[in-house]
Amino acid sequence: GQDQLRSILSNVRGLPGQNLSEEQIQLLMSYHLNYDDRFSEEDVAELKKESIYLFATRDDRDKYNMSALKRDNSEEQPCARIRAQDVGRCRCSESCWSEDRSPKSTFFCVGARVKLCGVNLMPQWGLYHGSMGVVKDIVYAKGEGPKMNKLPLYVLVDIWQYTGPPFFDAEKHPDRSTWVPIPPFKTACFGKGGGNIRTYMP
Length: 202
Prior knowledge:
This protein has 202 residues and is α+β, with helices and mostly antiparallel strands. The protein has helices spanning 2-11, 22-29, 41-50, 58-72; strands spanning 80-83, 85-88, 105-108, 113-115, 132-139, 154-159, 179-182, 185-191, 194-200. The protein contains four helices and nine strands, in the order H-H-H-H-E-E-E-E-E-E-E-E-E. A four-stranded antiparallel beta sheet has the order 4-5-6-7, with no helix packed on it. The two termini are 36 Å apart.
């Protein structure tokens, strides 16, 4: 239960006097995907699809994310590279921006898992930094697209923890109560030589 999990999380840190017991080690190992044929190939595929991955470094995270995008990319549902748009005279260049919070470019693909980064749009409705969801659509103005270096009007995301008013008719689309259009976001930098405004997808 929760007490057992709390004890494992405390002991796994390896602090003086706190070490995992043999029983705790065996319990953790029993959840390894290759442990004693516990999981079938179908189970493993489903677990990998639905799991949240943790990485020791950003490079490892980025490599995995790119491999997942390549896997999901297809002619019917191509991935879109959405580049931020900068306006201003600041000479600080990229040092003004945090790549995790206001990225120079982002990649989206219908079906990809995403999270909100660097913005708290409506925390009381579950739209905050770290909110996770799945891309349902990428909507551009008529005649525009990512190859034209244009930002979309919005990216439609199924955000699981969203609790605000629905954007779709509840009777016609009861399964879309957590679908939220996320528009481009603007942030400012005021450095050497003036200010910059970056418009990007959060």
